[in-house]
């Protein structure tokens, strides 16, 4: 099926070329004659044997039901390809070894922006503009957070109404996340899935997860920043749709329902590649490694 010495003339495996990502599940990944081979049992790829173009990949996303040989790790390390263990279609992030691309341009641009007070607030304002649909004139992060908080409360209410759900308030207990009502439980699970996708995007670019521009305290602050870009458009819509199906008697748990819905939606919209583009755009880093950022 794959012609050419390395199988690169007709690669019939779906992946986003500009982002260099490939998702594999339910199969065995090995090395044959110095090349990666994946024997699929019929998961994301139809059953069969595939030769992978590892020279063009920045990250392999390894989903459930996948095993691999030690030789695979050797090949990936040699070519600077990350191996990221994920849940179905990146709805969970389990581990991402630090084998990122052999470029530091994006991490350096992120660190420069984070360390400079003016650039740091400029990046935060860009994130808020993306979410709120307008560039706010304020330059104090506390004010921006307050405006965002008020608007998010309203978006919860309006989106819940659009799905025919009653809504009181956002209610989350870290010690007992399943104690809340169905809608809040669904939001918890949807937020976990979207945060996992953001973690994959950050890992694939070797960005610095600790250096957030809106979130500050978490060691995943930047991951949370990126996930929040999709709170209204993805997280809440997934959550409220699942909560409505549960109300209508869906024969499943809210966790499983949200995860399955998230996997389908992530595939449909290409969420991880979108997040990768978002991160590059924030810092003005182009695919050629040059930095054209202007955060003034």
UniProtKB/TrEMBL annotation:
Parts of the chain that traverse the membrane: none
Record-level GO BP terms: defense response to virus; maintenance of CRISPR repeat elements
EC top class named in words: hydrolase
Binding site for Mn(2+): 148, 215, 228
InterPro entries registered for this protein in UniProt: Cas1, CRISPR-assoc_Cas1, CRISPR-assoc_Cas1_C, CRISPR-assoc_Cas1_ECOLI, CRISPR-assoc_Cas1_N
Cofactor(s) listed in the protein's UniProt record: Mg(2+); Mn(2+)
Any GO MF annotation of the entry: metal ion binding
UniProt keyword annotations, A-Z: Antiviral defense, DNA-binding, Endonuclease, Hydrolase, Magnesium, Manganese, Metal-binding, Nuclease
Listed EC numbers: 3.1.-.-
Cross-referenced PANTHER family: CRISPR-ASSOCIATED ENDONUCLEASE CAS1 (PTHR34353:SF3), CRISPR-ASSOCIATED ENDONUCLEASE CAS1 1 (PTHR34353)
Protein function: CRISPR (clustered regularly interspaced short palindromic repeat), is an adaptive immune system that provides protection against mobile genetic elements (viruses, transposable elements and conjugative plasmids). CRISPR clusters contain spacers, sequences complementary to antecedent mobile elements, and target invading nucleic acids. CRISPR clusters are transcribed and processed into CRISPR RNA (crRNA). Acts as a dsDNA endonuclease. Involved in the integration of spacer DNA into the CRISPR cassette.
Record family assignment: Belongs to the CRISPR-associated endonuclease Cas1 family.
HAMAP family: Cas1
SUBUNIT field: Homodimer, forms a heterotetramer with a Cas2 homodimer.
Record's protein name: CRISPR-associated endonuclease Cas1
Organism: Ideonella dechloratans
Lineage per the UniProt record: Bacteria, Pseudomonadati, Pseudomonadota, Betaproteobacteria, Burkholderiales
